[in-house]
Amino acid sequence: MEKEFTERESLAVITEMISKSRYRLNESAFDFTLWGLAAFFAVSGQLILLQFVATQAYSWYTWSIMPLVGIASGIYNYSKGKKKGYSSHVDHMMGYLWSAFIVFLLLILINGPKIGWNVAYTLIIALYGVGTFCSGGLLKFNPLIWGGISAWILAFVATYFSYKTDSFEITLILLALSIISSYLIPAYFLKKSKDHV
Amino acid sequence: MYKELDPILHAQLRLQIVSLLMTVEEASFNFLLEATGATRGNLSIQIGKLKDAGYIKVSKQFKDNYPLTTCEITSAGRKAFSAYVEALQTYLKPGGSEG
To answer: Which among B15, B31, B36 has CB closest to A86?
Structure first.
């Protein structure tokens, strides 16, 4: 049965329906928190191992938790998408962005032994900045944009120290700082946000 | 000057469906059911009319052994919606009448 309705009612219908499917910013908080915490523990663990136990050749083993985090994140996002019943344009664009991020990350990791881990980790700091800066632009969320910029500044600082001292530990500390500034702090604000995009 | 409103879109449930689909990549039948508050039968009929008009694309598949119907808007649907909103504005301008 079709219901007759006025032009003003029709405008109200459009407004109401659009508001029902808008992307809530706090939807992204889980992923940024999960990946941020995992990367922070991995880099902190590597730093501790390097200082007290292992050599550089073995200290990176702490990063082996990341594939498990990937599986957990995949399961969470799959069930979230199923429950939500729709995929938004933001979901689509974020999917492309973070797929590109993973491809670039893999390339850096594969080339790590050749270019040296100090350079590789510096590029990873910059790559974190790319991921969060672009996410911030897509979500129109300033803490992510500033987080991305902070990661790039830290990447420049890491480059400076790399030339000056060639200390891998300093690069690790800067990587940990970039994770806090570009993932964990924006994730905290995302979780509190009531905005939509 | 009032522009004519597209009769396919100027019906509450069909307009609800198309408005929802304008903002998403694709949506499941169950999401549309919940968001519009329509009955299953009426929603199916209106989805069929929009599909016949070429405004939406309907895909049926199986996911986890359950049938899953998803809808997405076509470029003709986007154009029709934009034209509808443009026509609507001529009625809602100050001094315009509603009917």
So the answer is: B31
The span from the CA of B36 to the CA of A17, in Å, is 8
Is the CB of B68 inside 8 Å of chain A's CB atoms?
no
Closest CA to B61 of B32, B26, B34: B26
User: How confident is the model over A114-169, as pLDDT tens digits?
Assistant: 999 999 999 999 999 999 999 999 999 999 999 999 999 999 999 999 999 989 99
Which element (helix H / strand E) includes B63? strand B56-63
**B96, B15, B56: which is closest to A9 by C-alpha?**
B15
ipTM of the complex: 0.83
Suggest the residue from B18, B25, B85 to mutate for an interface test with chain A (most A CBs closer than 10 A): B25
Contact B11 A2 (CB under 8 A): yes
The model's pTM is 0.82
Pairing between β-strand A86-88 and β-strand B24-28 as defined by DSSP bridges: antiparallel
Question: Touching check for B34 and chain A: CB below 8 Å?
Answer: yes
Counting DSSP H helices and E strands in chain A, the numbers are 9, 1
